[in-house]
Amino acid sequence: MEPEAVRERLLKRREELRQRANDASAEARHEADPLSADFAEQVTQRENDDVLGAISSSARAELQQVEAALRRLAQGRYTTCAVCAGDIEPERLAAVPYTDKCRACAEGSRPQPGRGRVLG
Ligand SMILES: [Zn+2]
Q: What's the 10 CA to ligand 1 centre distance in angstroms?
């Protein structure tokens, strides 16, 4: 893939993640939906806040990875494995655009979860 196309894709992903993190935080702060006076309802709202918090923190974690990938791209190190300095497989980058490890190194540590949809 062309570096410029990769950059476009990462920038687009970054926007989505920022949006998702911001939306989840705003909702968890009850900007549009103040805590209910009803205790049972509050419990439901707080459970929802936990979910929103998880969404927000996973979006932020991926956001950091996307930003790191953009930096590596700018430095010409985007396809270089951070662990073994070998080339990261193109199909791996297509599936996980923000990865900084080749398949062997990634599998040696922690497998990437199968989420993070590939964008058209
Ligand atoms: Zn490696």
A: 21
Q: What is the pTM of this model?
A: 0.74
Measured distance CA(85)–CA(37) in Å, rounded: 57
Query: Which CB contacts under 8 angstroms, 24+ apart, belong to 95-103?
Result: 97/6, 97/9, 97/10, 97/13, 97/66, 97/69, 98/10, 98/13, 98/62, 98/65, 98/66, 98/68, 98/69, 99/65, 99/69, 100/65, 100/68, 100/69, 100/72
Backbone dihedral angles phi then psi of residue 80, each to the nearest 5 degrees: -95, 130
Q: pLDDT tens-digit profile of 37-80?
A: 898 999 998 999 999 999 999 999 999 999 999 999 999 999 99
Distance 96 CA to ligand 1 centre (A): 15
Ligand 1 centroid–CA 3 distance in Å is 20
